Structure to design on (127 residues):
């Protein structure tokens, strides 16, 4: 009984999972395509965006870990303080990878605005 109550309280306290991340209104996007793992987009100023909405937070954590291993080839250092997301990697300028609940967002912006682009996508997450 107590375990069921704790599980219920934990579920009620958890924020809802994201369902989608519409990219159509994000400034600077040149083209958007769907892929089996989510959405991909190219930036007009040079760069790419990948957004994956996982079925659960643990699935998003696993996806983030995989993306982080790939991102470490470009940015092997600890991320600077103050970057968005529950987890993050990158320099926040040219590259930023974040996990926000069950969403994983990767931005490679050759124009140096990776944090601004990422935060713009975060504001469009739909629960």
């Amino acid at each position: 009984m107590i375990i069921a109550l704790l599980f219920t309280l934990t579920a009620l306290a958890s924020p809802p999972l994201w369902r989608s991340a519409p990219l159509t209104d994000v400034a600077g996007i040149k083209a958007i395509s769907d892929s089996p793992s989510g959405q991909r987009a190219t930036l007009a100023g040079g760069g790419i965006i990948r957004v994956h909405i996982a079925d659960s937070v643990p699935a998003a954590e696993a996806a983030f870990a995989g993306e982080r291993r790939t991102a470490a080839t470009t940015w092997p250092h600890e991320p600077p303080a103050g970057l968005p997301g529950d987890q993050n990697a990158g320099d926040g300028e040219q590259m930023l990878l974040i996990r926000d609940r069950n969403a994983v967002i990767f931005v490679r912006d050759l124009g140096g605005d990776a944090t601004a682009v990422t935060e713009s996508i975060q504001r469009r997450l739909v629960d």
The longest helix spans residues 57-71. The helical segments are 2-13, 57-71, 114-123.
